[in-house]
TrEMBL record:
<dbReference type="InterPro" id="IPR055344">
    <property type="entry name" value="SecD_SecF_C_bact"/>
</dbReference>
<keyword id="KW-1003">Cell membrane</keyword>
<dbReference type="GO" id="GO:0043952">
    <property type="term" value="P:protein transport by the Sec complex"/>
</dbReference>
<dbReference type="Pfam" id="PF02355">
    <property type="entry name" value="SecD_SecF_C"/>
</dbReference>
<dbReference type="GO" id="GO:0005886">
    <property type="term" value="C:plasma membrane"/>
</dbReference>
<protein>
    <recommendedName>
        <fullName>Protein translocase subunit SecD</fullName>
    </recommendedName>
</protein>
<dbReference type="InterPro" id="IPR001036">
    <property type="entry name" value="Acrflvin-R"/>
</dbReference>
<feature type="transmembrane region" description="Helical">
    <location>
        <begin position="12"/>
        <end position="31"/>
    </location>
</feature>
<feature type="transmembrane region" description="Helical">
    <location>
        <begin position="320"/>
        <end position="340"/>
    </location>
</feature>
<feature type="domain" description="Protein translocase subunit SecDF P1">
    <location>
        <begin position="92"/>
        <end position="150"/>
    </location>
</feature>
<keyword id="KW-0813">Transport</keyword>
<dbReference type="Pfam" id="PF22599">
    <property type="entry name" value="SecDF_P1_head"/>
</dbReference>
<keyword id="KW-0653">Protein transport</keyword>
<feature type="transmembrane region" description="Helical">
    <location>
        <begin position="419"/>
        <end position="438"/>
    </location>
</feature>
<feature type="domain" description="SecDF P1 head subdomain">
    <location>
        <begin position="177"/>
        <end position="274"/>
    </location>
</feature>
<dbReference type="InterPro" id="IPR054384">
    <property type="entry name" value="SecDF_P1_head"/>
</dbReference>
<comment type="subunit">
    <text>Forms a complex with SecF. Part of the essential Sec protein translocation apparatus which comprises SecA, SecYEG and auxiliary proteins SecDF. Other proteins may also be involved.</text>
</comment>
């Protein structure tokens, strides 16, 4: 029995060394300034060492901390079938993200949310204080659509209704009807020149699905006009002579070369699958955000100190080792936040602080179970093993229920709550590792094989 405990102690010390190395590496990655200062000082004293500096990327800060611009756009899904709306909205999100990335805006947050019966596009650009610059980053990406010519009788009916101020008719185009062919099917746009007039035109090439739609559209409209609209403005309305099956169309208009190039570039950067309209714009200052961040971190530090004092007072050395495990827990969570990376908002920081409480809760369950085993007359070494073993089901079940809740919040709520849910989820998963593995390793490493004083270790 004695030799078994000695072997377990050696194994615990080996694991403790790995935990220490992992914790130091995580701490340097999270907060490299002390290491860099120490490395510069050593390099100045011992020049041949030349210790390298370490400059990892900083935390991704949310709009409420770093400041920036928030833009809200309404979307027009009237001409999109119900079955395709979800796909169209995702396409819109992807297009806007590509558009912003071209302008070099770092870490934009782009989300689709529903307000009443209307879908909205929310764009948050941290660090962009100039709203006009933000709107330019989104850009007036053209909405491209093709419309087919109405029958003369249909046109007459709509015009008559418009004369009578029919509100529905006033929203209708009396001459052209919307089709399913829009910019979402565009594969490429390029500038070409008319060989006779040398007038610049924009040639459109559709993807495979768009080519089929265009062929069907031209086939049923031979001898009629098909109008090409950009942002609701008709640019050209050529008459179809025959079905076009090569998936190409041409926009002709009174362009100069620069206008044609701009139109082609904007279409290539992303022809919007859904029309959008800016309905709200808001600039957020970073000063208030940093003040709230400082308050949150200070409150977290105060909470950590109070929890540490409580654990040491109630559980003695067992509580002290729980605090050490908690200190290991913090940089491990923060390095995951950096690597993913997680956007740190005030709500996200609240989730992280709450996860610290969850980590302490697991340690309390373990230590209380150990105390119960000691009261039943078990030896300390046996009580520790049994305490960890029997506390695990309670820790597992409570943390799994929290993980399920965090997942529901993350997948079915909006951005602010999602930030809270994500940091809480990561924190709870890591807390299970620190509570079970790190705490047990510390206790086994420092416990004497011959046994210890119950009251000194666990106040039992």
């Amino acid at each position: 029995m004695f030799s078994v405990l000695v072997n377990e102690k050696k194994k615990a010390w080996s694991l403790l060394g790995l935990i220490l190395i992992l914790t130091i590496a995580a701490a340097i990655f999270v907060y490299p300034e002390p290491y860099n200062q120490a490395a510069n000082f050593i390099n100045s004293k011992i020049s041949f060492l030349k210790l390298p500096g370490f400059n990892p990327k900083t935390f991704r800060l949310g709009l409420d901390i770093a400041g920036g611009t928030s833009l809200t756009y309404s979307t027009d899904l009237a001409n999109i079938p119900e079955s395709e709306k979800s796909q169209a909205l995702e396409g819109l999100k992807d297009v806007i993200e590509r558009r912003i990335n071209i302008f070099g805006v770092e870490e934009p947050r782009i989300e689709i949310s529903k307000a009443s019966s209307e879908w909205r596009l929310i764009v948050e650009l941290a660090g962009i204080k100039d709203i006009n610059q933000a709107i330019q980053a989104i850009g007036q990406t053209p909405f491209l659509e093709f419309k087919e010519e109405r029958e003369e009788t249909e046109t007459a009916v709509i015009l008559e209704a418009q004369k009578n101020n029919d509100p529905r008719a006033m929203l209708e185009d009396p001459y052209f009807r919307a089709t399913s062919l829009t910019g979402r099917y565009l594969e490429k746009a390029e500038v070409q020149f008319n060989q006779t007039t040398y007038q610049p035109n924009v040639l459109l090439n559709f993807d495979e699905e768009g080519a089929k739609i265009f062929e069907e559209l031209t086939l049923r409209n031979i001898g009629k006009r098909i109008a090409i609209f950009i942002d609701g403005v008709p640019l050209s309305a050529p008459t179809v002579q025959e079905a076009i099956n090569n998936g190409s169309a041409q926009i002709t208009g009174q362009f100069n070369v620069e206008e044609a190039k701009t139109l082609a570039r904007n279409l290539n950067q992303g022809a919007l699958p859904v029309p959008i309209n800016l309905i709200s714009q808001r600039s957020v200052g970073g000063t208030l955000g940093f003040q709230e961040l400082e308050k949150s971190l200070f409150s977290g530090l105060i909470g950590f100190v109070i929890i540490s004092l409580f654990m040491i007072f109630v559980y003695r050395l067992g509580g002290f080792f729980s605090v050490i495990a908690l200190i290991v827990y913090v940089p491990l969570v923060l390095i995951i936040f950096k690597l993913i990376p997680v956007t740190m908002t005030l709500a996200g920081i609240a989730g992280f602080i709450l996860s610290i409480g969850m980590a302490v809760d697991a340690n309390i369950l373990i230590l209380e179970r150990i105390k119960e085993e000691l009261k039943q007359g078990r030896e300390v070494n046996a009580a520790v093993k049994e305490g960890f073993l029997r506390a695990w089901p309670s820790i597992r079940d409570s943390n799994v229920s929290t993980i399920i809740t965090a997942l529901v919040l993350y997948f079915f709520t909006t951005s602010v709550v999602r930030g809270f849910a994500l940091t809480l989820l990561i924190g709870v998963i890591v807390s299970m590792f620190s509570a079970i593995f790190v705490s047990r390793t510390l206790i086994m490493a420092f416990m004497s094989p011959k046994g210890v004083n119950h009251k000194l270790w666990f106040r039992a």
